[in-house]
Design a protein that fits this description.
GMP Synthetase, Chain A, domain 3, 8-stranded mixed β-sheet, alpha/beta, single chain, globular
Length: 555
């Protein structure tokens, strides 16, 4: 859809002739070469002679030259020895590590798809993803290898030695692959920007996660946006930029930004395998970290314990915190700035389906538009659509947010029905979020049509937990809602209808769920109810339950 500058309000970015909001940020053109994969795009950019990665657990440094040499060796081994071809799906089950980006970059350079999964997921949850994506190979650690037992997938170990892992077929280790001698010339298949690069699973409203297929074009556009956002193209900005990666690399933001994207700017990335506040603060101090991505509960914790933190850790290098997952309110922003006045808060909004891109605040002044998710990202268009009538709305009108940009996914993996219900024929992505744009073009997220629960930044689909609860022989009906909590954001709370004669307890229900899901999905509060409120079509009235839970009233 062409931009009509004559009918566009420069203040809000809204074009009255086509009811479209346009980004107020400078556009970012795609590379003209259509035969380009994300790995080649990143590696071909000019780099400073800096360290690419630092492992905070053992202080190992990986230079850029070592990084690209290792990626080349690994991709050669995958292709020539293990037969990985364009279109194959390769699974990685691992916490954050230096191996994670090596595997991702190598796999994508071949035109194969990298698919990731949360190490906290149970064997049951992982097996469902494997059944859908059908990986050709899997990379995992010795500690996590048992979760792949029975999958039938050939496994390559990240660290450790080949040993006995039940009935797993262990092919080799990453170290052996990289050290292997080349005995033939690799013939690399042609990879285009439109080819699939990644397959990440996004929580859906039906209780089943859907595989989001992102192209090389999607990822290249995401990388360019990141570089532009932090002005990392500028020579004075490229030197001395150190990011700390606590964001999970299996997540879209961690994968595209920290496992791949920031490498295009020559940044140094400090890697932590998991979040632990003491280790995190020590690493920021030791490695002079300047950029720190976090979720709102961590920002709140830092503000609440600022005196202790400043007494015991040197955070003088920290210049920016990057918050995502939920908009920050005035009290949180000003409370943090009072304790850390030299740190700029930046925020962002995005979806797995939009390769993490949507809207951002890129300076403190923008973040002080309290409650906003920011201005539309470069080269991004948006609509606000009435969910009932389908009518496109204007400034300060609330409806479902639709997005269109080079970062919008190709579609859902082997799920045509879900794809056509989410992507329009002319490229609009229906976000499932209820939003509005104000008169200055700032996006505000009001509610979620998708009704996902955000626990410490993790997405928890209520329908998945409801389906699990209904498998219990003593439960007649159930509904799961987000319960607000200042420490974690939200946690899952269940309303349960017990079958006649049942004395099922709250703890028994929580234990039943805990044994079958990842820790972040666990039910942490249960209330019993005579019947679950539903509308005429049978849809659970979650808003009524949320109101009841937070007010202490009864239906």
């Amino acid at each position: 859809m062409a931009q009509d500058n004559k009918n566009m309000d420069k203040k809000s970015g809204f074009c009255i002739s086509n009811s479209t909001f346009y980004s107020k940020r400078p556009a970012i053109p795609l590379p003209p070469n259509t035969s380009l994969d994300i790995t080649t795009f990143i590696s071909s950019r000019p780099h400073c002679t800096t360290t690419a990665f630092i492992d905070a657990t053992n202080e190992r440094h990986v230079s850029y030259s070592e990084l690209w040499s290792t990626v080349d060796s690994l991709s050669f081994s995958l292709s020539s020895t293990w037969g990985v071809r364009k279109g194959h799906v390769i699974l990685i089950l691992s916490p954050n590590s230096l191996s994670f980006p090596l595997v991702c970059l190598s796999v994508m350079s071949l035109g194969a798809l990298i698919t990731t999964t949360n190490p906290l997921n149970t064997t049951r949850e992982i097996s469902k993803q494997i059944a859908d994506s059908k990986p050709f190979l899997a990379f995992t650690t010795p500690e996590l290898a048992p979760k792949l037992a029975g999958s039938g997938i050939p496994v390559i170990l990240l660290g450790g030695e080949k040993g006995s892992f039940g009935n797993l077929k262990i092919l080799t280790t990453l170290e052996e692959m990289v050290k292997g001698e080349r005995k033939e010339v690799r013939v690399k298949e042609r990879v285009c920007q439109n080819d699939a690069a990644a397959l990440l699973y996004s929580s859906g409203t039906t209780g089943e996660s859907k595989g989001v297929v992102s192209s090389h074009r999607n990822m290249i556009a995401m990388v360019q946006t990141i570089i532009g956002r932090f002005r990392l193209n500028d020579e004075d900005q490229r030197n001395g930029n150190t990011f700390i990666c606590t964001v999970p690399m299996f997540h879209i933001y961690g994968l595209v930004a920290f496992a791949t994207g920031l490498l295009a700017a020559g940044a140094t990335i400090v890697v932590l395998p998991k979040f632990e506040m003491n280790d995190l603060l020590l690493a920021i101090s030791k490695y002079k970290v300047s950029y720190f991505p976090l979720v709102p509960p961590i920002l709140v914790a830092m503000a609440n314990h600022a005196d202790h933190i400043k007494k015991n850790y040197d955070l003088s290098s920290l210049k920016h915190v990057l918050s995502g997952g939920a908009p920050l309110g005035k009290e949180v922003i000003e409370g943090f700035l009072e304790k850390f006045p030299n740190v700029v808060i930046m925020q962002g909004y995005g979806l797995t389906e939009s390769t993490g891109i949507g809207a951002t605040t890129d300076c403190l002044e923008e973040s002080r538009r309290y409650g906003t998710a920011g201005l539309l990202s470069p080269s991004t268009e948006a609509k606000i659509v009435d969910p009932e009538s389908g009518k496109a709305l204007g400034v300060n009108q609330t409806g479902e947010l639709w997005l269109r940009s080079h970062t919008v996914m190709k579609g859902y993996f082997n799920n045509h029905e879900a794809t056509i219900s989410t992507l329009t024929s002319d490229g609009w992505l229906k976000s499932g979020d209820v939003c509005y744009f104000d008169e200055d073009g700032f996006l505000f997220v009001v509610d979620r049509l998708k009704e996902l629960i955000k626990y410490k930044g993790y997405q928890v689909p209520p329908a998945e937990l409801e389906a699990l609860l209904l498998t219990h022989p003593e439960i007649a009906d159930a509904a799961v809602i987000p319960f607000p909590d200042k420490n974690v954001g939200q946690f899952p709370m269940a309303y349960v209808v017990r079958k006649a004669g049942s004395n099922l307890s709250e703890n028994e229900i929580m234990d039943f769920v805990a044994k079958q899901v990842a820790p972040y999905k666990r039910i942490r509060r249960v209330a019993f109810i005579d019947s679950v409120p539903k509308n005429a079509s049978g849809k659970i009235l979650r808003k009524d339950l949320i109101k009841m839970a937070t007010s202490g009233s009864k239906l």
